[in-house]
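Shipment paperwork, digital attachment
Item: protein structure file
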Amino acid sequence: MKAFVVEKYGKDGARAAEVPEPTVGDRDVLVRVSASSINPLDKMVRNGEFKQLLKYKPPFTLGHDVAGVVTRVGPAVHGFEVGDEVYARPRDMRIGGFAEFIAIDMDDVAPKPASLTLQEAAAVPLVGLAAWQVLVDRADVKPGQKVLIHAGAGGLGSTVIQLAKHLGATVATTANTHSEKLVRSLGADVVVDYTKEDFSKVLSGYDLVLDSLGGANLEKSLTVLKPGGLAISVVGPPDAGFAKRLGAPSFMAVVMNFLSHKVRKQAKALGVRYEFLFMEANGSQLRNLGALYDSGKLRPVIDSTFPFDRTLEAMAHVEQGRTKAGKVVVSMVPGND
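Attachment content:
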């Protein structure tokens, strides 16, 4: 089958290749991929940014989002049958959405939301799960709380705005002038145009900040939190909890603590908290999210769609910052350019 693989770590390390069809384990569903989508994590994994913790051995197939049709099920699989339309974020060490077929553990798979096309559904899993794990699992957002979401027009930001609003939060976001109308339509109550204003000068008293930019933006984000508030970053620096969740050796927890020492020290001085989130595969949560898409509480935001044979161009489109809003989808269906 055709796939896009990482042959070596680095910017130019991905290429198209012919690879064997995946082996189907007892608990696996084999999915014929209809669509995938591009995430910043694809670039990070390709470049080897997590290679000390996620020990992929090149060549390996890239791609963290999948929507498609079940073509085979393992003998221990229950709840899925051949012909089912499904979507998933395959677990770490088993990614591979940029391919014609992928075998996925049944616990990571969920029925595709009925209201979405397969191409729309492919834009959901990673950002939907990250939004759920930030807002529900980690922060336990309640009605009336104040949440700041950076880069609200992006694939992750546009999803988190909608879910935070559904949970009853007052939502602020940063965006540029051209994106203000979009983020307000998604539910943002307060929009700070980062081309004109410094969010840290105009916002205060927030319960939660979701940072997807890192660096100075993360440091400033700590200052808008109320005492006891929580800043969660999806770009780092990683903390000891990340190493523990991956089951990494204890020395890696020490390394992670060192990497995040500066921001954790700043947070402590301000009386607030910092955590790093590396989202995890979870088919049960995808079922919950699917119900929200089908009820109209959430909707995917898609920037553009590339045909499968132009997957590397789609990655470059995202890397070069050419995305105007939402996700870039890669489709197996001809004519989706």
